[in-house]
Amino acid sequence: MKIAVLGTGMVGRALAARLAELGHAVTIGTRNPDETLARTGDDAFAAWAAANPAVGLAAFTDAASAAELAINATSGGAALEVLALAGQENLTGKVLVDIANPLDLSAGMPPTLFVKDTDSLGEQIQRAHPDALVVKTLNTLNASLMADPAKLGEASTVFVSGNDAAAKATVSGLLAEMGHQDIIDLGDITTARGTEMLLPVWLRLWGALGTPEFNFKIVR
Amino acid sequence: MKIAVLGTGMVGRALAARLAELGHAVTIGTRNPDETLARTGDDAFAAWAAANPAVGLAAFTDAASAAELAINATSGGAALEVLALAGQENLTGKVLVDIANPLDLSAGMPPTLFVKDTDSLGEQIQRAHPDALVVKTLNTLNASLMADPAKLGEASTVFVSGNDAAAKATVSGLLAEMGHQDIIDLGDITTARGTEMLLPVWLRLWGALGTPEFNFKIVR
């Protein structure tokens, strides 16, 4: 499948590398590819790109227009702006996977959520892109486990929320390819409120356990 | 241990019966014992009390004053009022286990939370009773599994939040007696924000799975 991963951060890179490894044609979207490649530092994108030659890099709009499925891997606060740059017309009729969390870091740690309880980032994205098929998923575990949950050595759970059953089936197929064995369909996109509100306890668990390498499993 | 369970509902009954079965001296607290025993209907307290003769019934203030440890098993919205009736002087220096959730059902289903993200019911209770040792726990699973988690056939996780390490150790001991094998200490009482915010996804999972007989397990 032709996949656009919108976002050049750790989460976007982890998913892009994994999906490319699985045989998908993956392009990472960014504001300005030249500027992204010119960045220096320990986690410079150019070095990562050189180690992952199968993954392309393009402007948000080009990545989205060429893709069959797009993944919002931006920080939550940038999501609506980035998706606007990708272009509503480039997302029409396509599956738009939202893996971001609405974290508000403006008041320091721990972060709060800039939308919650009566609305969610997933719903904001669906309203902003009514012709895209938004599926919220993977926002409840860290990047390395999103891409390769088998690392934990025990099956754990991921959730999907969205209004379109076929879109959720497509996304569940990708999740299964990555190794997710327990995928719970929570219902329509309003159920993203629940998974986004998992973040506060996830952050406290990271603190208590001393590692982000854990995941929720729904035992039943 | 002499334990007061404040609240005559399903959650209070399940915990009271289990703790009595384990050999504790349990008294359920209520506003007016005579009125509570006079109620009729399918889930009348009098019938339950007849089947559970080891569990006492007393006014909130009497139950709390006689107890070494008190459990807030009220609905979240009633918690502060009930604890005021129990009496601040009757809770001083005692472990106060808060298992309630701040559910707001005023706008119908699904409920929202009347406090969240920057504060929690657990913190509200601790502020209202500064001399009590508040421990938030058990608010992330249903009553029957709170009391007997072994029913699931697989170990799952419960959380404790509180400012006093000795109080958390006491509560963790009770949890272990009831069969909880994986107890994660999240930190101080502010970490109750995280576990209270689990409720929205818990409610959606109930809908998706068709049963409340499930629990979170933290796989790591």
Automatic annotation (TrEMBL), chains A, B:
User: In terms of domain of life, where is this protein from?
Assistant: Bacteria
Q: Which residues form the Pyrroline-5-carboxylate reductase catalytic N-terminal domain?
A: 2-102
Pfam families, sorted = F420_oxidored
Q: Where are the transmembrane segments?
A: none
Keyword Oxidoreductase applies: yes
Could you list this entry's UniProt keywords, alphabetically sorted. Oxidoreductase
Record-linked PANTHER family:
DUDULIN-RELATED
Q: What is this protein called?
A: NAD(P)-binding domain-containing protein
Species whose genome carries this gene: Sinomonas flava
